[in-house]
Amino acid sequence: MLRVGDILSGLLEWAPASLAWERDNIGLLIGSADREVTRVLVCLDVTAEILTEAVQRGAQCIVAHHPLIFHPLKSIQTDTTHGALLAGLLRANISVIAMHTNADAARGGLNTGLAALLGIRNGRRLDAIDEVEQEQGIGVVGDLAEALHVRDFLSAVKKALGCSVLRCTPFAEDRLIRRVAVCSGAGSSYVPAAVATGADAFVTADLTHHTFLDFQSDILLVDAGHYETERLFISLCAEELQRRFFEDTQKIDILRTHTDTNPVWFT
Ligand SMILES: [Zn+2]
Questions:
Q1: What is the pLDDT of residues 75-123, one digit of tens each?
Q2: Helices (DSSP H) in the chain: which residue ranges?
């Protein structure tokens, strides 16, 4: 019988803890490493709807991208949304594992996955952790197979990421896009690094008015949304778990969430 600790060990082989941002909070956040597991539910964020889904689908363990507990807890008040969720998970005896910036930076992690979705070839890291091999780190920059007109590029990004709209810097209609940098999630701090590579465009999320303003002459900035640039975590992580455990003699079911937890709507 597999246990939560086995799931965690397998995930850390894919995305080692050493890759995580030093102030991140990854690993087993709720529950016990000894808890037996037959079903794992993979999602981006743990919400009340995800808890309900885990209970209904019989999952004993949730693997999420974003840490449900990040800031130090000073209290757990069950009349708050967060406190009620923590209490609900404990009552349901459901463990929660977070794979966050370590999964962003891993080989086969979110940044390389995002680059692959957008057709970026010969990618190298914007911020390599292993300077020599360039295989782990935050952000990827590389080239499209052929230069695209800017509107075709933006349409391709929308299609690949399932976006209804994109936020981007103003552009001339005849602009061509060949070299593309990406950073899943909040990537504004990597804009200067993307510009330094000579990239024509940088696809990321959570860009502010002033970032658009300050860099509009240097690069086509594309804010595709935090959820939209990170939801591929669900398939990447599920595939990693499947590869490691599905052929185990004591099989487990790897469930991909059916719940859309995007907290941002466009109306
Ligand atoms: Zn994120």
A1: 999 999 999 999 999 999 999 999 999 999 999 999 999 999 999 999 9
A2: 4-14, 48-57, 81-91, 101-105, 110-117, 150-161, 191-196, 209-215, 226-230, 232-241
Q: Which has the higher per-residue pLDDT, 148 or 252?
A: 148
* Cα 178 to middle of ligand 1, angstroms: 26
Main-chain phi, psi angles of 233, to 5 degrees:
-50, -40
Distance 69 CA to ligand 1 centre (A): 14
Q: How much is the pLDDT for 230?
A: 98
All structural domains of the chain, each given as residue ranges with its CATH number in brackets, are: 4-102+231-256 (3.40.1390.30), 107-224 (3.40.1390.30)
Nearest to 65 by CA among 115, 141, 121, 11: 11
What pLDDT score does 245 carry? 81
209 CA from centroid of ligand 1 (Å): 20
Q: How far, in Å, is the centroid of ligand 1 from the Cα of 185? A: 5
Q: How far is the CA of 249 from the centre of ligand 1 (A)?
A: 34
By the CB criterion, residues less than 5 angstroms from ion ligand 1 are: 185, 230
Query: Which residues lie below 8 Å from residue 71, measured CB to CB, with a gap of 6+?
Result: none
pLDDT at 225: 97
Per the model's pLDDT, the better-predicted residue between 157 and 136 turns out to be 157
